[in-house]
């Protein structure tokens, strides 16, 4: 969820993960399954998307048995419900763009829940393509500034494909193309402790929101993220202090 403080977002996500391990494990299993089916098979050595999903699951302390079952279910070794990866697009209060990524075994249930969230908080669920053109996929890394100087981080990151390095208050933010994600992740992890490493949809431009619109937008995004089938929520809203 895009806001004025990515560090606050990261700490909130970590807190939510600690409180809702069951839901987090379910989401991780969904992501692993999709990576197997669409990313190139059940071997993480030849499937970067699967490797990323497994790494993410392990950071959430998902047991290896759960990870193995998710891989086997997706590859057909174990029976399981068919999963669908669906994106929803719409507008929040003040006309901000909202992009929702979900994985579900029941399309009707998920679209009903997503539509209800939009309407309940002053937003509108739109047609496919209405806001996705405002976002591009990027690899993002966040590193505590106390762990690295800008100079040493920049030298290493640019050498391994980073497109941009920026100051985000308590953090350094490193951005790259999805194709360079794995290589840059390996290089950074060898030298620094990463606060977050993810491939996200990044807005090309942001819309400032404040007051009532900011409150409604924040509630919309939070309630969307709380839905069991929703994996990620992105917005171009920029919350003012």
What does the model show?
Residues 1-5 have low confidence and may be disordered. This protein has 241 residues and is of the alpha+beta class. Strands 3-1-2-9 form a four-stranded antiparallel sheet. Strands 5-6-4-7 form a four-stranded antiparallel sheet. A two-stranded parallel ribbon has the order 8-10. The chain is built from eight helices and ten strands. The chain starts with 5 loop residues before the first helix and ends with a strand. It has a domain at 6-75: Integrase, N-terminal zinc-binding domain (Arc Repressor Mutant, subunit A), CATH 1.10.10.200. A hairpin with a 5-residue loop joins strand 1 and strand 2 (97-104).
Could you provide a short overview of the structure?
The protein is of the alpha+beta class and 241 residues long. The protein is built from eight helices and ten strands. It has helices at residues 6-19, 21-39, 48-59, 64-75, 107-120, 150-159, 181-189, 211-226, and strands at residues 84-91, 97-104, 124-125, 135-144, 162-168, 171-176, 194-203, 207-209, 230-235, 237-239.
Report the major sheet: 4 strands, antiparallel
Please give the radius of gyration in angstroms.
18 Å
Distance between the termini: 15 Å
Shape: globular
| Helix and strand run | HHHHEEHEEHEEHEEHEE
Helix count? Answer: 8
CATH homolog superfamily of the domain at 6-75: Integrase, N-terminal zinc-binding domain
Element layout with pairings:
Layout: H1 6-19, H2 21-39, H3 48-59, H4 64-75, E1 84-91, E2 97-104, H5 107-120, E3 124-125, E4 135-144, H6 150-159, E5 162-168, E6 171-176, H7 181-189, E7 194-203, E8 207-209, H8 211-226, E9 230-235, E10 237-239
Helix pairs in contact: 2-3, 2-4
